[in-house]
Design a protein that fits this description.
With 198 residues, this protein is α/β, with parallel strands linked by helices. The protein contains eight helices and five strands, in the order ααβαβααβαβαβα.
């Protein structure tokens, strides 16, 4: 009987935590200023029309978002050919070779120096906005004439100030889950918009 009671309490607690999370995500979604989407959309349309590359980078959960975004923006959608979207997070051999030989801070800069050209786009995803390898990639992109779009959370960090187009999700420092969820929601909104114009 005691086990049933304890299980019931745990169930109620879990439901409460889940509800709190959904409520917090809803608050962020409701208060977020989506006006930055117009600039991001314009940058992506220009890249598609000029057949420029769109490179996407991130660490951890943001690396998974980069892969997801490259799929959605690229070959994953119906209709007109999508963007030439490439997640620089997706080649494990390249990442580990660069990390081993040149340090983790160089995993994106080495690839950009080889692949990127003026007119391309770099999308940087970082909840904190302060990941050293992301900040270095932005600096390299600017030197190459690459337009930068930044997805950030918390207070936006350095990324928010460095990129050409900032997509910032204001949140409490450490709220990785809601920020990463918002970045995926924004990705899906942009994908739908791009497909509707294809």
């Amino acid at each position: 009987m005691r086990a049933k009671i304890e299980g019931g309490v745990a169930s109620v607690l879990q439901e409460s935590i889940g509800s709190q999370y959904i409520r917090r995500l809803s608050e962020i979604l409701e208060s977020w200023d989506d006006s930055c989407l117009v600039r991001a959309y314009d940058v992506l349309c220009t890249a598609r029309n000029s057949e420029s590359n769109v490179f996407i980078i991130g660490n951890g959960g943001s690396a998974a978002t980069a892969s997801h975004m490259a799929t959605d923006f690229g070959v994953g959608g119906p209709g007109k050919s999508g963007l030439r979207a490439i997640a620089l997070t997706d080649n494990n051999a390249v990442l580990t070779a660069i990390g081993n030989d040149h340090g983790y801070d160089a995993v994106f800069t080495r690839q950009l120096n080889l692949l990127a050209k003026s007119g391309d786009v770099l999308i940087c995803i970082s909840a904190s906005g302060n990941s050293p390898n992301i900040i270095r990639a932005i600096e390299v992109a600017r030197n190459l004439g690459v337009t930068t779009v930044g997805f950030s959370g918390f207070d936006g960090g350095q990324l928010r100030e460095l990129v050409d187009v900032s997509i910032h999700v204001p949140s409490v420092s450490g709220e990785y889950g809601p920020v990463e969820d918002m970045h995926l929601i924004i990705n899906h909104a942009l994908t739908l918009w791009l497909r509707s114009e294809a």
